[in-house]
Amino acid sequence: MIPLLIAAAAAVEEETASEIPHDDPTSNWTAVLLAIVSLIFYWVFLKPTAQDTGAPPPTVAENNSRRVRSAPQQQRRPAAPAPAPQVMADRRLPTPQNLSDNALEVLLDCQSKPSFVTSTQDKLGLGGHKALVDGLVAFGHTEAAVTTLDASSRTERAKVLSRLGSSPGMTLSAPPSKGSTMVVSLPFLTPADSSISKLQHILQVLGSYYNLIVIGSIDPSKPAPASLKEQQEQQDSLQNILHAGDLKESILPSHRILLASSKVGRIALVRQLVKVELMVDYQPEVQAELGRFGYKVAIVPQLGSLLDD
């Protein structure tokens, strides 16, 4: 292609020269100027193109080698190890990291603890926060955890758990693990009830193995208590009935004996607890309602009957 362009340029020069009279002195300068322009055009445009088209295309290996050489040096350095995740403190617990100086001063002076707690102050931690699990004192820190039952009582506990697991609508493959939370609902009780002694014994064997919470009922023949004083009187009455026999305060503390005016109240109370492994109730509607939320509920109309032959 280049020879053709040169020949064309030469032809143009000859044609131009032939048209211009030889005796004109400017014709020589015109030819020289045209030759210079052609030479500049060749060196600027045609020669680089010829060099590029004549070179063989780079191979795949050459391209890869160029990429490796041109890669930034920092990309070939090993990545820095990720920082270890920081464990966030649970702000619900009174740890020294999230309390003010005034609160720390008050808690440091508090050395008392509930009567049913056996752990030392060092194991309980500041404000007893080490003993709390899901809002309750962990079973391992209570006197119930160190209570030893005789062989007969352990056999009765196994019998009670077996019958709870086989109660209507219950699919309990294994009893709850030791120390887990269990809620037991009771119908309205009076000191004259004949099943009180059996009931106390069942609560004793269960309370020595689980974090037990009892929910009693008010007298259905009377209107609901209208004042806090009436509510407290009925709750005190239930606590006195249950603690009148062999059931010890250390096994079932009084503050874990509660009162509800209806099944709706019992359902709401259980749902306020963080984790309940098993609930025992006497109304099937409670099982149907709590079952929708994943709770395991055993229906036993009379708890004392679990020890009947």
Short description:
The protein is α/β, with parallel strands linked by helices.
Question: Keyphrases for this structure?
Answer:
alpha/beta; 7 strands; 309 residues; five-stranded parallel beta sheet; Rossmann fold
Structure description:
- Residues 70-79 have a biased composition (Low complexity).
- Residues 53-96 are annotated as: Disordered.
- The radius of gyration is 47 Å and the shape is elongated.
- Among the domains are: 96-133, no CATH class; 146-307, Rossmann fold, CATH 3.40.50.
- The chain has helices spanning 2-19, 26-54, 60-70, 101-109, 121-124, 151-165, 196-207, 228-242, 263-272, 284-291; strands at 132-133, 136-137, 181-185, 211-217, 257-260, 278-281, 297-299.
- The strands form 2 sheets. It has a 5-stranded parallel beta sheet, sandwiched between helices. The protein has a two-stranded antiparallel sheet with strand order 1-2.
- Residues 1-9 and 84-93 have low confidence and may be disordered.
- With 309 residues, the protein is an alpha/beta fold.
- Helices cover 42% and strands 9% of the residues.
- The protein is built from 10 helices and 7 strands.
Please give the CATH class of the domain at 146-307: Alpha Beta
Main β-sheet: number of strands, strand sense, barrel status? 5 strands, parallel
Give unreliable regions as ranges: 1-9, 84-93
The helix content is 40-55%
Please count the helical segments: 10
What is the number of beta strands?
7
What gross morphology would you assign? elongated
Write the element-wise H/E pattern from the N-terminal end onward: HHHHHEEHEHEHEHEHE
Class based on secondary structure composition and strand pairing? alpha/beta
CATH-scheme architecture of the domain at 146-307: 3-Layer(aba) Sandwich
What's the Cα radius of gyration? 47 Å
**Terminal residue distance:** 115 Å
Please indicate the percent range of residues in DSSP E strands (runs of 2 or more): 5-15%
Order of neighbouring strands in the sheet with most strands: 5-4-3-6-7
CATH topology of the domain at 146-307: Rossmann fold
Global mean pLDDT: 75
Biased composition (Low complexity): 70-79
Region (Disordered): 53-96
